[in-house]
Amino acid sequence: MAKPKVVLGVTGGIAAYKACELLRRFTESGHDVRVVPTDSALHFVGAATWSALSGNPVSTEVWESVHEVPHVRIGQGADLVVVAPATADMLAKAAHGLADDLLTNTLLTARCP
Questions:
Q1: Which domain does 26 fall in, by range?
Q2: Could you report the per-residue pLDDT of 8-37, keeping only the tens digit for each?
Q3: How many structural domains does the chain have?
Q4: Is the Cβ–Cβ distance between 90 and 19 less than 8 Å?
Q5: Distances 96 to 6, 11, 42, 77, 108 between C-alpha atoms, Å
């Protein structure tokens, strides 16, 4: 049986470091986790840390590859999307369909809860 695929969106709140614990719990439970941090989140926890903890590469840019569109691949392949912490800015963007970074674009393409 394939591991459930989880997208963990991390925003730039002071609680961003707590997402490391959430990531650990998901991976220990047998989930395949892709972390999608915002630029602001990377000020609190770096991409190398997310990659090491998840065992997966960390994508941060919508157009980082011309051969594929990461937000579509990541969003449509997910079984679950969790955004933690979710700043007020992220909640407003999600509520109004504003997609100006990889995480918000991923939310728009996700076909799961």
A1: 22-86+95-109
A2: 999 999 999 999 999 999 999 999 999 999
A3: 1
A4: no
A5: 23, 17, 24, 23, 11
